[in-house]
Amino acid sequence: MTTSTPTTPAIPLVDYGKYLHGSEAEQKEVAAQIDEAFRNVGFVYLTNHGVPQERVDECFEWSAKFFALPTSTKLLAPHPPGSTHHRGYSGLGQEKVSQNVFDEEQLSKLRAVPDVKESYESGNPTDDSQPNIWLPEDKLPGFRAFMESFFEDCATLIHHLLHTLSLALRVPSLSPTHAHSLFQLRLLHYPALPARLLRSHAKARIGAHSDFGTLTLLFQDGVGGLEIRDPRCAGSGEEGFRPVPPVERAVLLNVGDLMERWSNGRWRSTLHRVGAPPVPMREGAGGPDGEEEEEVCRPRYSVPFFATADRDAVVEALPGCVDEEHPRLYEPVTAWEYVQMRMAALYS
Fold first, then answer.
1. H or E segment to which residue 106 belongs
2. Which of 14, 156, 267, 312 has CB atoms 3.0–4.6 Å from 38's, for a disulfide?
3. Where are the domains of the chain?
4. Contact 132/141 with Cβ under 8 angstroms?
5. How far is CA 210 from the centre of its chain?
6. How far apart are the two ends of the chain, measured CA to CA in Å?
7. Handedness of CA 145, 151, 152, 154 (dihedral sign)
8. 3-state secondary structure of 257
9. Where are the compositionally biased (Polar residues) regions (predicted)?
10. d(CA 252, CA 206)
11. Among residues 73, 69, 86, 21, which one has the least CA distance to residue 47?
């Protein structure tokens, strides 16, 4: 039976170990639990997911070491201009996440409030179409080797999940459509920031958006700040967002746009964002005249792992997802076409 955390009842918590190590009946049970979560909210927490916690902890340690480097050193592995080669380091304000905004004038207005975050992207070491961009080894010895091995840890989990979801839909495995593992491992750092700037929208960490691949794994630190939009709320106001606190030793899994298209809307690619964490720290000890202390959002680190299908994979409604009650919602599109359209809006 699917259980929920006390603090986030809308997002189920599923023991994925029952799929990895269980009987056929247990595998079907887990597939049904994830199917239900994806239909209702588009997110699910997974425990016993097969990526050892010590590996996750080490990834966060490497992330902290990388972002603590001088900017001049990080820029030895720069994200290239534009959006077609999504690898390397992006500094504060370089990226602006948007949702279905492609007009350049509108994008310029959005970019006036940049995302206050920095990131480092790497992908499959065998992907010659988007080679990784690494620091010189002597600048952070061991960083590249660990990131390449952690990529494999996460890619293995993604392929297990694709088998699981195919079981839920009763279709042939989707894993072969991701045969080249064109995935992206991202390190994210959100520096400390006065909470008032986030709450007044003068600054942003990440605005509301959906992921545009098939699946996303998210490993979080303990700071918080992630929010998802409750699919049951009408309209698009602020009241529709709910906090998603980190769950110890769990990975958060969510549906991306391409998977929503494949399932013909059965599964939800839910809007989410990163705002002010619920427990900010305070700066200083207050002024001499009793002024209130400045609330400062603590630095936040997260590690998302984005999966997408092979470039030429045609994404259209899968068998069993279209009938008289569920007409076709989307036109067929290749994974490459859709991802590049969304990526083009991220970078100025």
1. helix 104-111
2. 267
3. 3-343
4. no
5. 9
6. 47
7. positive
8. helix
9. 121-132
10. 17
11. 21
